Amino acid sequence: MFIDINASRIDIGHVKRLPSTCENVGTQAQKTVLVTHVVFPPNNRQCISRQRRAWYDTLLGGYGTLTGVLNGIDIETLANRMHSAGSKLNDGLTLQAKWMPTIFEPAKISAGIDTLMNQLINASNDFAVGFDTNITKCINWTVCTLQTMYEQQQKGVMQTMLMTGNEQVWRTIFNTSVSRDAWIHLEAAKMICNDTICQGILTMYNVTKVIQMCKYIVMPLLLGPSGGEWYWFPTMKGEYIDENNRTHDLSICTPTLQGKICRVQSAVYEPCLLENGVNLCKWIVLPLSYTMMMEVAPQEVCLVTDTPAIPGMVVPFSGCISNVSSLTWENETFILYADREEHVTKYWSPQNLSIPQWDLKLEKLHKIMKQSKVIEDHIKYLNQSIVTHQVTTTIIADQLQKIGSDVQDATSHHWWDLFTGYSPSASNMLNFLIHPVLILCIIIIILSIWNCVVFYRICCKRQKVVMASYAL
Length: 472
Prior knowledge:
4-stranded antiparallel sheet; 41% helix; 472 residues; elongated
């Protein structure tokens, strides 16, 4: 390491300011005390299930209504077809009563299917109502709870910032009362908060005159004849010194975030500054063996010594050295570094909440699906029984074969059956929708034909022209 020891400069001044302590002092200011009240709304929220249906309830309800209507039409159509099939079976019973033991087995199977279908519909309705009610209550309770927690979190953050004396928060909240240029004094320790209100005091100063003051140290004077000098320390009373070398006592001043407030304050009288013709100055006289070293700023040291600390120093010495990077003091070498400024940027990222594992118990739905499987097996068995009965009847007589064919046609269920009159509900709906349309179409057709006839009679029918001659 190479140290430039020739760049040091000797400062002969005996009153040295400390740069790190310099601050603005307001000497003329108007004081305003604000008694602050921050009121928080009471938490009257009760997380209970609301009766008002949410949008998803409306959507699911509309879907359920639509599927219920279609399911009802389908069941009604199937019932009418089963009734038609039953009538055909009655005819078959009359014709083959002498030779066939019984045909009541298909009717029993049909009745069993109706019973299972009724149970299936009831179970489906119970499950849908219970599922819709539970999901609605769960979602409403979850939203209410999260909103309550978020409100409490915001209140807690606001109370913490108020009680810790955050200037930006105070200025933001009371921006209508505190001007941008005002000096404010926050007494965070006097801010009292509870669940509904925060009360405190904010002192505001409108400053019209500002002076910069710094703390200082006084170096001794080297007085006396050559060879018999002594170090003479003057006694100074003021704690701070201004730009005009006047000292001040700021112990009674009020600290603010922008500096100290010392309203209408004069400088401290210093006899040692020889401001008058006759002065009573108190001195402390020390021998040349007295030594002192103090770093007042980066690479700036004040010394009282009779031993050279840097090359070229004339001793005894009392003063300050600036821009010094290497110093020898009492057989030790000190390396002084200048202050550095570093910029550090950190990016904060919030923690992601884990996705909740929703577990819905669907035992009821599973049971319903199993019941639907049982119904499907019964329907297949019924179709097989009817087909077998049809074949047997065909072998016996052609008339029984026709009855078997009618039974097969009556039990065949298609989606277009709602247009063939098997479902009275569907027929009423279609009549309500189609009849006005048919009437409107008939009126339009009649008007169109009349328009064509009139057009033909006016424009297209030839008129006979009779030529007449007259003789004079």
